[in-house]
Amino acid sequence: MVKDACFQTFFTMRRAAVSLVVLIILPIIGCLAQEATEPVKPSGDNPVLSLEGDPEALYFRGIVHAGGHGEPKNAAFAVLCWRKAAEQGHAASQCALGMMYANGLGVPRDDAQALRWISKAAEQGYARAETNLGYIYAQGIGTSRDDVQAILWFRKAAEHGEVTGRYCLGVMYVLGNGVPRDDVQAALWFHKSEELVGEYARSNPGEISRRVMTGMAKDAPQLFSWFGKFAGQGDSSAQYNLGIMYADGIAVGKDLAQAAFWFHKAAEQGCVPAQFELGIMHSKGLGVPKDVIEGYAWLNLASVSLSHAEDGRDALEKGMSYETRMSGQMRTRELLKLTGEGKIFAATKGDAGSQNSLGMLYSIGEGVSKDDARAAFWWRKAAEQGHAEAQFCLGLSYEKGEGVPKDESLAAFWFRKVAEQGNTRAQYRLGVMYEQGVGVRQDNAQAEFWYAKAAEQGVIEAQGALGRMRNRSNKAATKQGAIGK
User: What are the angstrom distances between the C-alpha of 182 and each of 171, 176, 188, 226?
Assistant: First the structure.
């Protein structure tokens, strides 16, 4: 069913492979957090040398060693891998190498080298590098500050679906840096930054807001004022971001009660990141009385779109009795009805995020009667506004003929729309369609192209399909060569 495939987009794939998630140039979290204790010197026994001609393999080997995934953490060795791949023009490796220079991990910090390598990746259209290059220009790191260049690169990243780039673009419109101040554009990009698809469904979305605000600390008071104004007018994204500022004491005294208040306002309107934050606060008694059932219900609700919430819910569930879990499920249904009614109102006003969420509710029959046709109707409304999540789900509807007549060419059309924004499941599905000639003319080159896009972001099925196709091509070439002799 479409709903199962949509849900898989959001939280099944996160455990499939290691993924390097580079946000903006601040102290890097996760797999790049630990520097090597000893430098790595190339030698005849160095396994990286055997990967000389395969930049993708070098890139993934760098991830393994940077994060300590089955190997000891070794930032210097990761740098060696990424440098070899970067010198062959591999964009993801160029971006990763630039970030290592920016943070002094595995190499001495060197802002000029960071700028050089991140620029190379950005010029190839690599969205994470585009965001990082925008941040470099916005802050004047290793170069003169240039807000116009910052806007250019943030916009490129935003248009490629990179959510941090979208958030930064919203910030620039609030501040009027490089563009005239524009409240409508700011609100638009803040809302688009909350679209939790691809790799962003695997992480804590609040980290994006927190890192950008921390990196732009001098502008935080202006952001606080803007979020406060629009939160009071009922904008869910502003309410969520205001909650973040109160929760972390950014430009205001830390006030968990106020944070919970604004998270609740946003959560009731269907803001998934706010639902996650509220679930954590209720389950731990932060700013509100501790209420495991309420915390479980909000985390359960957010888990439909956000795997980080699913992890929190599962951890909480381990300590709950059967009766408490059942109470949590009942409360979830009550919240679904509450947020579903809010989504209906917002959807009729043209809010793409609410239209997408309403499509999801109709597809699973929660809070409303199950209706695949209504689901497809609302997904189309959101998809036509460029909402990536809705575009993918609409593609699935056409592929499976649920709620709409089956049309594999239209499925391919919508998959391409969202694949170009970086959605890994759409990239993989598009690869399958080109390989099999379903909905599109059969084209092995296009199949390999889209498989490679998904494989680079850690989709195991795509990695397997890409390896299979390349092995088949190599065997065919070897056989042809033997015939020629």
Answer: 10, 7, 10, 11
Mean pLDDT by 10 residues, the chain (485 residues): 37 28 35 34 46 76 79 88 93 94 94 96 94 94 94 92 88 93 89 63 67 82 93 90 94 95 91 91 96 93 76 88 90 78 62 79 73 88 87 92 91 92 88 93 92 84 84 67 55
User: Running DSSP on this structure, what letter comes out for residue 50?
Assistant: G
Residue type, 335: L
Residues contacting 180, CB < 8 A, separation 6+ = none
Contacts of 196 (CB under 8 A, 6+ apart): 10, 205, 272, 273, 305, 306, 389
| pLDDT for the residue numbered 367 | 60
The first and second tokens of residue 375, run together, are 């689901």
Confirm if 168 and 152 have CB atoms less than 8 A apart: no
**Cα distance from N-terminal residue to C-terminal residue, the chain:** 52
What's the pLDDT score for residue 245? 94
Secondary structure class of 290 (helix, strand, coil): coil
How would you class 405 by CB atoms within 10 Å of its CB: exposed for 0-12, middle for 13-18, buried for 19 or more? exposed
Q: Does domain 194-349 have CATH number 2.80.10.50?
A: no
Q: Are 197 and 389 in contact (CB under 8 A)?
A: yes
CA dist 315 and 309 (Å) reads 10
Check residue 368 and give its pLDDT.
65
In the DSSP assignment, the letter for residue 303 is T
**Structure tokens of 96?**
């990763």
Give Cα separations from 94 to 26, 58, 81, 123, 379 (angstroms).
17, 12, 11, 11, 36
Residue spans in the chain of domains classed CATH 1.25.40.10: 19-145, 194-349
How would you label 239-257 residue by residue, b for 16+ Cβ within 10 Å and e otherwise? bbbbbbbbbbebbeeeebe
- Contact status, residue 262 vs residue 246, Cβ threshold 8 Å: yes
The whole-angstrom separation of Cα 338 and Cα 278 is 15
Coil vs helix vs strand at 142 = coil
Look up residue 170 and give its amino acid. Answer: G
Distance CA 325, CA 319 (A): 10
Top-level class of domain 19-145:
mainly alpha
Task: Tell me the backbone φ, ψ of residue 361, rounded to 5 degrees.
Answer: -65, -45
Q: Which residue has the tokens 């919430």?
A: 309
H-assigned helices in 205-351: 206-215, 220-232, 236-248, 256-268, 272-284, 292-302, 307-317, 322-348
Amino acid at 188: L
Amino acid residing at 390: A
How big is the chain by its Cα radius of gyration, in Å?
23
